[in-house]
Write a structure and sequence with these properties.
By secondary structure, the chain is α/β, with parallel strands linked by helices. Helix content is 36%, strand content 22%. It is elongated.
Length: 241
């Protein structure tokens, strides 16, 4: 499973009081990782460009460290290359022979950057047998979004959620997966919980048990004590007054 996470500037908006969308997303990702100890997981982030933050790994402690360090895209690179983000995540599994290959695409914006369209990336995912679950982030109505003004300091603007819900549904449907709407922290957590329940794979494993006999460690001292007792029985110590 590769999580493709939007780190564009709009992820600073606070649908949940005092928590921006990126903070909420990182919390949910950590809980998701903790619930899948047997899976290889990875993280891709994207703003105007996409990059692999952590390749597929079973080292989940390292993965959580990488997730903790994720920050917003720098100024000038904080648009939304949705197609590139998805393509980068799919490419991480191109050579995988795993039975189940999944991308969880998290975004709060429209595709407005990058050289590859989301539809083309979705077709590539379908061709490679990768399911793409999509999560659209944003509340109904306006939400506060911080803006740093060099002269006036930080201030908040009311911003309307603007992501292409129809496109996200189409991406999920193309790959045989589902779309989720996360309007707040609870919605975010519920989306990851449902994805976790949908993507279960049965595994068979062989357990080899090795037995080591330990009775001799007790038998030898017991035999010595018994012999000692029999020897004492033929002496004046055979009976305690």
């Amino acid at each position: 499973i590769v999580i493709a996470l939007d780190i564009s500037g709009s992820m600073r908006c606070e649908d949940t009081r005092n928590k921006n969308r990126l903070v909420v997303a990182k919390d949910c990702i950590n809980r998701f990782v903790a619930g899948r100890p047997e899976d290889r997981l990875g993280v891709v982030v994207f703003g105007s460009v996409a990059m692999t933050r952590c390749p597929l790994t079973l080292d989940h402690d390292m993965l959580r460290e990488f997730v903790a360090e994720i920050d917003f895209a720098p100024p000038g690179e904080d648009r939304t290359a949705l197609g590139m983000g998805l393509a980068t995540a799919v490419n991480r599994m191109r050579t995988s022979t795993a039975k189940s290959k999944v991308v969880v695409l998290v975004t709060d914006g429209r595709n407005n950057a990058g050289q590859l369209g989301p539809e083309s990336a979705a077709e590539a995912a379908r061709a490679l047998g990768v399911k793409v679950y999509t999560i659209g982030v944003g509340s109904e109505g306006e939400v506060p979004c911080p803006v740093d003004d060099p002269q006036g300091g930080r201030r908040y603007l009311q911003v309307q959620a603007d992501f292409d819900e129809e496109l996200l549904r189409k991406i999920a449907a193309t790959t045989g997966a589902r779309y989720f709407r996360a309007s707040d922290a609870d919605g975010f957590a519920q989306a990851f919980t449902e994805i976790d329940s949908l993507e279960k794979t049965e595994r068979e494993s062989r357990v080899r048990m090795l037995y080591t006999e330990k009775f001799m460690q007790a038998l030898v001292p017991a035999g010595l004590l018994l012999g000692f007792e029999l020897a004492l029985a033929g002496t004046r110590l055979r009976r305690i007054p």
